Amino acid sequence: MPPKKVIEDSESEDERVVHSAQSNDKYQTVTKKRSVLYESSSDEELGQESEIMTDSSSEHESDYESNDIDDDNEEDIESRFKKIERKVLEKACINKESMPNQLIVHTIELHQFKSYRDVCTVGPFSSDLNCIIGSNGSGKSNIIDAICFVFGFDSKDLRAKNLAQLVNNQTSNTTNDTYVKISFHLINRESREKLDWFDIERRIKSGELGASHYCITDNTGSRKASKKDVKQLLTKHGVDFDYPDRFIVLQHNTVKLVKQNPNEMMSYLEHLFGTDQIRDEMKKIDIEISDSSKQLENIDNEKQSILKDLEIIKPKVQQYEKFVSLKEKAEKLSSELEVAKWRYNSFKLKSFKLALGSAEKDLSKLQSDLNSNQSEKNKLAKKHLDLTKKLEDTEEAFDNLKHVIKSHQKSLAKKKATLASIARNVDEVSQNLKKLSDKIDKSKDEEEKISQQIQTAEKSIKSDQNQQEIVERERKALTEAISQDPKMQEYRHTLEQVQQLREMQDYQSLKLKEQKHFAAMQGIEAANHNISMSQHEAERIATEISSIEHQEEQLKNDLEKSQQIIEKLLAKHRELQIAKDQLCQQQMVCETSLRSINEHNEHYRFVRTVHELSKQPSSGCFGTLSDLYELKDEAYFDAVNSALCPLLKNTVVVESRDAALKIVNFFRQNKIGIVTCEILDEVSTSSRIERFIDESELIPMMDVISCDSPFRPLLFKHTNNWYITSNISTAKKYSRSDHKMNIVTLNGEIFKSFGEISSNAVNKYSSSLSETLIRSKSCSKLLDHTKDSSQTERLLKEIQNRMTDNANSIEQNRKDLEDEEALVRINNVQLYNFKEKKEQLHKDMDTLAKQISNYKLELSSYYEITSQTTLNAQEEQLLSTYRRNISTLEQMLDNYQTTSIVQHFSKLRN
Q1: 382-391 pLDDT, tens per residue?
Q2: What's the pTM?
């Protein structure tokens, strides 16, 4: 009888099988219901679906028939073996499909290993079943121990305390090493053809009995390896080191295996074939089946409603089938398109390769162009100096222009002040003219009064003449009476005497009157002469005033023109200032372009000299790091360039220290630039990376860069303690840890071990990690340099032409300003003269007004004298002519004054 524990395990297994059988019965009832529903439908498609479902149900029934149990809940061992066999066959089929090739042991070579003293070769083995037959102590188990020794088993599993006990103790020569070498062949499972081979050797050196060394030999050659490398190589070809008892049974386990009961043997075989891991999955599957049966019942209820909708959906299904066919055609067309694109890209690659070849040919031409560009650069530098000098001259001219404009502005302000004073003087003249007109009006009133007095005097003179006639008549009558009367004659005689006496007195008085009258006539003539003279003087003053006003207008126009010219000059000055700023900006752009050209030329010269030195075998130069390193994946482009940025610019790899000194002297003599030499002979050969981190989060930088084997130590030196991560959070996490490591993200953020953080430190020559990019970008850079140099030369010529044009315009503006200054000076002198003339005219007008007032007084006195005296007809005629002349003079004066005043006021208003 088996142990109690085994019986309990079998009972749990029986319960599981019963539960699965119950679920199987439920599934059968569900499938029956589904088949009944399908039989009820008359459609052909539904009939096809029912056939498929019944087939599937029969398959399920056949699957679950193998899981039937007895009434006593005891599982038959044969059924369990069949079940395990089926699982193992399924697993074998899966392994066959996933791994079509098989790894076999071909030969085993032993030397001084345990019982094998000399070199012994076991094999070749067959690809099928192999048996090793021999008597006890012949060394059968030692062959298995040799295989375990090569596979890296511990010494206790090889029936030895340590590695020294594995060495044959009967050997006399202790200088030879103990080793076991197994030759593996990789063959095809079906055709049994040999596809590949490799040898694994584990050696115990004679002087180092406590250590062993591995060596792997394949098509590429032999190389030292570690235990980890051996395990990786074997697991790659299907050897499961996690469960070693699945591919080898050690000697001390054979007794246990033989003594096992059936259940223990069954569990061992399940562990051996890996079916014990399926139990949990089976339980999960049973639970899923129960859940799916419930879902199937719900689906059957929904099926009836769906069947009714199927007839309605049939035309849509047909449309969908058409759509599916069209979709398949579209997918075929898209695949054909992808093939065409691939062909086009391959053709494009070929054309690019041809273009690269032509670009390499053009490099030699561009080198000669670079030398010519250097001479042109020197010329441009000289032109730049000339332009700076001209700019300084233009700045001085601008300063002079500013001073001239300021002086003109001051002179304009003075002119405006003089114009304001002239306007005030004109206002004063107009006021004086108004006063004169008032005085003339008063004189007119006085003349009217005088004329009235003259008329009254004339009337009195007429009345006196009438009285004289009457008196003469009386006198004649008296003379006749007196002539007749003697007494009267005596009286007449006495009267005559008296009359003579009176006539004598009258004669004297008449003489006096005549003298007075003559003096009055002379005074009138003098006054008339003075009035005519004042009239001429007034006309002259009027003409001078009109000329002064005309000149004032001309001066105003000239001032307006000069203001317009000054505004134009200021606008030109602003335009010239803007042009100057633009020229300064263009000059800065030219300087930056020249600087970039110099930098590109220096870098290209550095790369060219390094390539030329690397082509010479005696130089000992291998090239730059960008020539020797190559990225495995473009995804790490920014990260690698950010980390190695300081080394990519001027680092050269050389063979020895002498070669480094030669290259440094060569660079110093030819003045090429700074160079850093990495001496390959002095770099330590250890390239072991500590794998203490999770490689899913951090990737060693050394794993993403490939190079030739001689340069691996140099790559280890440059990328040691450098790791790449995809996000910043992991970089922060590991940068704070105790491990001293430098971390860089895929975007180029760097986290140094000593706490420094930098971002986007990608080198401007970062494309140098790819040789094709170097060549294409160097060609494009050289073309850009030539274009930039021609563009800068053209820009400098344009700037020079603009500077000359600006200098000419500035000179012309300066001349125009000098002419304007001369005109303004002349106008100022004329204004000063006109001002003096106006003042003199004002004085003359005052004197004339005084003379006119004096003349009026004299006239009034003369009028009084004439009113007292009686005048003859001739004297009256003279008086009347004088009066008419005076009235005409006054009218002329009034008309002239009114017209001149009106014109003056109209001009002032304008």
Answers
A1: 777 777 777 7
A2: 0.29
